[in-house]
Amino acid sequence: MTTLRTKIAMGLYASVATLMTPLVKYHLKKRITRGKEHPVRYTEKLGYASQAKPKDKLVWIHGASVGESLSILPLLETFHSLRPDLTFLVTTGTATSARLMEERLPPYAIHQFVPVDLPLAIGNFLRNWRPDIALIIESELWPNMIFRIKAHGIPLILLNGRMSQKSAKSWARASFFIGDLLNQFDLILAQSSTDARRFNELGAPHVKKQSNLKFAAAPLSYKQGDFEELSAQIGTRPVWFASSTHRGEEVFLAEVHEKLREKIPDLLCIIAPRHPERGSEILNEFQGKNLPLSLRSEGNRITEDTSIYLADTLGELGLFYALSPVVIIGGSLLRKGGQNLLEPARQNCAIICGPEMQNFEEICNEMVDKHAIIKLSQTEDIIAQLEALLLNKSRQQKLAQKAARYVKDRGQEINDVANEILQKLPPNE
After folding, report:
1. What is the arithmetic mean of pLDDT over 64-89?
2. 182 and 297: one domain?
3. Alpha-carbon distance 241 to 236, whole Å?
4. What's 417's domain CATH number?
5. Is residue 240 domain-shared with residue 339, that is, in the same domain?
6. 182 and 204 in contact (C-beta within 8 Å)?
């Protein structure tokens, strides 16, 4: 039952959003001139369909951007194997994710841009598509969307639900509202026990801890030609890879690399910054160090003299995981919470992470328990751990095999997720 305070708050929110509609339309058109919106399909963000609604039962799945949309793909395959009679409507918000979905969606799925959180846009969207069930991925808690989905009698599920500590604290300041908002979900499948606890503490009544969809993702793709070219340039040199690093980590890791080369003179380090546009900034930070640096963005080759190869390009992590048997997880050496450690595990890498893995805390702890990853208790241990792995291929392989096995075993849980959701799908009339 929605409280009176929430009804008043939603009335004010909807009124302000309605008044903002002309400004939002103007803003979308301005973004077209900057290449930020599709010149034709931008009207989908106002709820207007660019394709006809299919006659089959329709499952709507929304993921905000690239990461969420990629996690949808294995779920679609699982749904299709269980219920080939279903059609899927996948919505995302960014132009990049739309291009990705156009390339990768199967023929039984349709892509549209998600409507902005205006009463007009959400109303148009729901009238045009009339989905039989709605799935929202991770943490897209748009009030107009959520309340209006339920007002139309559509079953609503939050899938792979994520609630960070920061978000939980912010929402707790409006506890009456978040409780009512989360009560609109027929089911919340949280991606970890920590997320499930936070949803419960905020007043969500239908929460279950379920598997993280990222376990079932496919390995990152790369171009075979690029792999062969770089493999030839590297030759037999030992390699380690620092993936998705943050400001401050690159210089620290360069100093680590200098010390490692005292015992492994031909060692090559590959560094991929989380934000590739920082390439020139990182280059300046390395000035004065005796570490010859090559930038991928400038087309530099890896030569015998190259000590560090800066992979300052987008979308190539899969390539460098394939090239590097040993990986350091970026963001884990500073207080950034760590980056995705399932991707290198899926590509048979031996993985080391720093002490700061809050973003993947539960997964990291499980992998530590299974001896599938090395987690440093302090960053000063990194040289000893890297040296031990780089000089012991047998240990490398065993660690990589355990990580790959962990991800594969957890990936099978996607069938349980799909079956749980299908139980909420209304029966055929």
Report:
1. 91
2. no
3. 15
4. 3.40.50.11720
5. yes
6. yes
How far CA 120 is from CA of 45, 246, 265, in Å, comes to 10, 41, 64
As given in the structure block, the two tokens for residue 364 are 């990291």
Residue 292: predicted pLDDT: 79
CA distance 425 to 217: 24
Q: Is the pLDDT of residue 418 over 90?
A: yes
Owning domain of residue 112: 4-211+413-422
Token pair for 220: 């990152």
For 114, the token pair is 């998600």
The confidence score (pLDDT) of residue 399 equals 98
Can you tell me the distance from the alpha carbon of 183 to that of 168, in angstroms, rounded to the nearest whole number?
Answer: 16
CA–CA separation, 32 vs 40, rounded Å? 9
Instruction: Name the β-bridge partners of 295.
Output: 310
| Strand-strand pairing, 187-190 and 133-137 | unpaired
When pLDDT is averaged across residues 276-302 and rounded to a whole number, the result is: 87
Q: Tens digits of per-residue pLDDT, 199-209?
A: 999 999 999 99
The rounded mean pLDDT for the chain is 93
The model's pTM is: 0.84
Q: Are residues 73 and 80 in contact, defined by beta-carbon separation less than 8 angstroms?
A: no
Task: Indicate whether 429 pLDDT > 80.
Answer: no
Quick: pLDDT tens for 368-377: 999 999 999 9
Q: Are 74 and 218 in contact (CB under 8 A)?
A: yes
218, part of any domain:
no
Q: Considering its fold, how many domains does the chain have in total?
A: 2
Helical segments of 20-104, H only: 21-33, 66-82, 95-104
- pLDDT > 70? residue 107: yes
Q: State both tokens at 140.
A: 């897209």
Instruction: List the catalytic residues.
Output: 68
